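Predict the assembly for these two chains.
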Amino acid sequence: MLHFVSKRLLCSFRPRTTRVKWSPALTALLQVHFQSTVAADNNNRTDIDHNRIKIHRSERLKPIVPNKDLVFGRIFTDHMLNIEWYKENGWHDPIIKPYDKICLEPSAMVFHYSFECFEGLKAYKDKNGKIRLFRPEMNMKRFQRSAARISLPSFNEKELFKCLKELVRLEERWIPAERGFSLYIRPTLIGTQESLGVGPTTRSLLFIICSPVGPYYKTGFNAIELLATTENVRAWPGGTGDVKVGGNYAPCVKPQIEAAEKGYQQNLWLFGEDDEITEVGTMNCFALLKNEQVTPPLDGSILAGVTRDCILYLARSWNEFKVSERKITMSEVKTAAEKGRLLEMFGSGTACIVSPIKGIHYRGLNIEVPLDSNNPSNQTGPITKRFADTLMGIQYGEIPHEWSVVLN
Amino acid sequence: MLHFVSKRLLCSFRPRTTRVKWSPALTALLQVHFQSTVAADNNNRTDIDHNRIKIHRSERLKPIVPNKDLVFGRIFTDHMLNIEWYKENGWHDPIIKPYDKICLEPSAMVFHYSFECFEGLKAYKDKNGKIRLFRPEMNMKRFQRSAARISLPSFNEKELFKCLKELVRLEERWIPAERGFSLYIRPTLIGTQESLGVGPTTRSLLFIICSPVGPYYKTGFNAIELLATTENVRAWPGGTGDVKVGGNYAPCVKPQIEAAEKGYQQNLWLFGEDDEITEVGTMNCFALLKNEQVTPPLDGSILAGVTRDCILYLARSWNEFKVSERKITMSEVKTAAEKGRLLEMFGSGTACIVSPIKGIHYRGLNIEVPLDSNNPSNQTGPITKRFADTLMGIQYGEIPHEWSVVLN
């Protein structure tokens, strides 16, 4: 914008203020001056700048939804954060405004070529009423990586995080003050250029919306049974399985429906000729063997989950069993189950923290996964529960830990 | 909608018209009656019905853009077709209305999980002023397959095609009457439910927009040089490489940019340890060897292109060389080039028909692909050109063929 203002100024100079004799040299000099001003200004405006945030408060606040009525990702707060990006001049001023529709031309690239990536993190209210976030810098970094993979613009993560905090502070009344409840925060970046040509977008919109959510399992843990998916593949080396781009998700629904139709709660993703385990539904996957905890390695085809990272860190700090990031095949799981060496299995993710697994249907076989041998009525194994309790304790500030960031 | 009306009717019955003694049995009876009415009605309304189309003509038609100013997918016509789908009652009435923005909640699933698939086909104006489409039934069928792969609703292809024709007829003035020019038609289906849960959408929007386009190469053919992509992989068996879903496209841009930065016009997609050729940019790929034309088989990881299918059909009907759908590796292409057995290579797609290839940069090697040995200044090999001329002849109705469908 200022680019054009300066150009106009330059043009208007010539006819009006000609007391000194106007020379081509002077024109050139002034042009250089203005161009460098413009460049500096563009540089200043290129990245997200929290100091330039504008806040338009909603005049009609919605009624808060009671905790018992919350369904994941269906209720949204009063405001949203919008930041537009243009190839010519970078990121525009961040705007917090009433939660409202996004209106785009039908040719907007996000509708055709999936220029879209997102993040998911939560804000918690602790016993002292303080707002806490959980390892938000990991989400900001991954958001950046996801954007880069699909050629969406990069941004200053720290400035974006400041804007995010501003929004969360404004929506404080929406953060449920009950253990197990939280405010789910969804930063999203979409390509909005009006063009059917396949190429990098010249225009983008970053927005953040917030949704109050309840515990994944309303009545405590419910161990799930999985159907191993053998027809479809979630991701592959050189693809996009390690980033949170929209394109990874819609194709997951078919195997999910197939699993549900056969009575399974989720599908288990496999890869390769030897049926390596990769993910479970939209979660990372862990197997606890005798003396070893195994999760697939970050080889480019699985998502680097924040919860996954926490579980590995906690397990290593406990130093009670071997902690491995390595390939694990269905054949190994099957044999371990047969020989009593499979102790527990679970999925991990931001939505559920951990999700205990009680069985896998795999190529006609039913593999039973133990839960709690001491208490068969329990819906979770003891280690799985320990991860859940520890992580929740940290998230709600009951266990002091640097992962939990208090919002100032 | 009617479902709710009936329910309301049912409720209002009870308090008001109680002359006969109201019994649970009567309630049940009435409920059955209303439910079956609703079911019948739902059945009637479930699919797309061209007879119910509503047309709202634009009051301010845009000026037609001169052919010379057309850029692919940037100019759009005056109207668009919209058909909404709801899980409860299926497809609503098709509506043709002025081309306008699509307004969705920021939580609409299309923005987060890439519930989006599309098609691309063209309308041509022949010498007699007749409008012609090219094998549109193939696009309708593939559109259906794409939708199914990402759990979007199915539809009656024939009824949708009737609606599409209605739109094209209305936009007749936008179809350029010049050989090489056409009206690009873009049917798109998106999931619009307002939910952050990953699962099948309960609400969708099918829309069709149209864009007048020029020839892919304004000054005749321009043979392209390719950079073989070895870091990223486009698709995988069990993935979505054989359907036109949005998620296949955004991740393609990074290798495209890498190719462009090194001076290549497109990237060549490879697969597997032996570097099989799969696609070129967003096109199918053909190699002409001595006595054999080779294109990768439809093994689930490449798109079943309409132009690809035409080329195979034409080549087989010519019966001059062997026509193979088989795996072809870079090593085979390299050896063939070295031994003078590589005659021509080209990409194929709706946008360009064919795109001649003059070279491939592959793992440090430059593989030269011959163009026309009789006329080195030509930008295309003779067989490549023959495919282009034949297909264009059919598309513009100069060569009579059942592929070209005159719009009545």
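Residues 226 and 392 of chain A are 25 Å apart (CA to CA). The two ends of chain A are 34 Å apart (CA to CA).
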